[in-house]
């Protein structure tokens, strides 16, 4: 596993961040970290489609 992924799952870090910054901010950061990989997939697919269209338009 990646080191950053293990760090994100350590509950003591999340509790510390929760006490420091508050619930809404921590939830937002958690969701952004969790869905970052899923958000990049459509961008990659769009880039591939653009390449295909350019190749076929020639």
TrEMBL record:
Keywords from the named record: Membrane, Transmembrane, Transmembrane helix
TM annotation in the entry: 12-33
UniProt xrefs under InterPro entries: YvrJ
Record has Transmembrane helix as a keyword: yes
Record-given protein name: YvrJ family protein
Native source species: Lentibacillus salicampi
């Amino acid at each position: 596993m990646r080191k950053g992924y293990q760090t994100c799952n350590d509950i003591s870090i999340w509790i510390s961040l929760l006490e420091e910054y508050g619930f809404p901010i921590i939830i937002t950061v958690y969701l952004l970290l969790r869905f970052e990989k899923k958000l990049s997939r459509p961008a990659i697919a769009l880039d591939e489609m653009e390449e295909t269209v350019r190749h076929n338009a020639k």
